Amino acid sequence: MAADVEDHCFLELADYAFQDSSRYLSGGATVTELLATEPFESAVAQQRIGRTRPSAPVVINHSVGDEVVPYAVGKQLGSDWCDKGAHVSFNAGVTPTHVGGYVPHIEKSMLFFEQRFAGATPPSTCWAL
Asked: What angle do CA 50, 63, 79 make, to 5 degrees?
């Protein structure tokens, strides 16, 4: 499979989406099963986003129509960071798909970064999470 997709653009990889991952791994285990074994389990646990508080304000843009990362995951991340005292600007969107969902958030992200580079702190939406 690696040789087959080596020169593909991400749009050409649709044939490989939504497949059972055991199909691509030796030994017949799925990625989920593999990640539940050491040394992967502890490495993934150490890197789990949301366990530590960001040291600067963050923006999270997430579409309710994201088919790759469920919306509830993004919202939970924002909530976890807010619970730790982080400054979070969470923007929900309705544009479908993981890739397409970013389009309506470009303007919001640019405004967030313009405010940060100007030394201002963008509004927090922790009260809504």
From this structure: 30
Taking phi over 0 as left and psi of -120 to 50 as alpha, with beta for the rest, 111 belongs to alpha
List CB contacts of 49: < 8 A, sequence separation 6 or more: 77
Query: For the residues 6-19, what does the mean pLDDT come to?
Result: 77
Amino acid at 123: P
Examine residue 39 and say whether the peptide bond preceding it is cis (omega within 30 degrees of 0).
Answer: yes
The sign one gets for the Cα dihedral 46, 51, 55, 56 is positive
Residue 42 vs residue 50, higher pLDDT: 42
- The sign one gets for the Cα dihedral 69, 72, 78, 81 is negative
Taking the C-alpha atoms of residue 103 and residue 127, their distance in angstroms, rounded to an integer, is 25
pLDDT at 50 over 90: no
Alpha carbon distance 21, 56 (integer Å) = 36
Q: For residue range 51-108, what is the model confidence (pLDDT) as tens digits? A: 889 999 999 999 999 999 999 999 999 999 999 999 999 999 998 888 888 888 999 9
